[in-house]
């Protein structure tokens, strides 16, 4: 059985359910999702699901999250472009905030956790 499963893009609830099922069985599930940052990615995932399924979803996400990595191309002072990267790692604190649906707190924790490898877009610029 594979250890890592690559899912092209998560566009709907069914694909997200498969990704979570793979992660729940010990696979590393890697995918893309169009969003501007980690918080927006979480919001998009949550909004795939009806209200009554969200508590279980947050539990599953909190248990299985390894990282959200977001990137944007930004113009540099000399007119070129470079990647700005945001990284949110699935630390115990991040997982706990997701479990409790306290998503507005995530950015603050990311800003304080650069020593762990996290970075907001603001830090990247």
Automatic annotation (TrEMBL):
<dbReference type="Pfam" id="PF00437">
    <property type="entry name" value="T2SSE"/>
</dbReference>
<dbReference type="InterPro" id="IPR001482">
    <property type="entry name" value="T2SS/T4SS_dom"/>
</dbReference>
<dbReference type="GO" id="GO:0016887">
    <property type="term" value="F:ATP hydrolysis activity"/>
</dbReference>
<feature type="domain" description="Bacterial type II secretion system protein E">
    <location>
        <begin position="2"/>
        <end position="82"/>
    </location>
</feature>
<dbReference type="InterPro" id="IPR050921">
    <property type="entry name" value="T4SS_GSP_E_ATPase"/>
</dbReference>
<protein>
    <recommendedName>
        <fullName>Bacterial type II secretion system protein E domain-containing protein</fullName>
    </recommendedName>
</protein>
<comment type="similarity">
    <text>Belongs to the GSP E family.</text>
</comment>
<dbReference type="InterPro" id="IPR027417">
    <property type="entry name" value="P-loop_NTPase"/>
</dbReference>
């Amino acid at each position: 059985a594979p250890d890592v499963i690559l899912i092209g893009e998560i566009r709907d609830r069914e694909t997200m359910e498969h990704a979570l099922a793979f992660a729940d069985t010990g696979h590393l599930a890697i995918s893309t999702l169009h969003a501007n940052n980690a918080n927006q990615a979480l919001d998009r995932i949550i909004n795939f699901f009806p209200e009554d399924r969200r508590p279980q979803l947050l539990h599953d996400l909190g248990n299985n999250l390894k990282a959200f990595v977001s990137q944007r191309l930004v113009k540099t002072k000399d007119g070129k472009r470079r990647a700005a990267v945001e990284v949110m790692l699935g630390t115990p604190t991040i997982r706990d905030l997701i479990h409790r649906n306290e998503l507005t707190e995530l950015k603050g924790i990311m800003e304080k956790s650069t020593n762990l490898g996290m970075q907001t877009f603001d830090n990247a610029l």
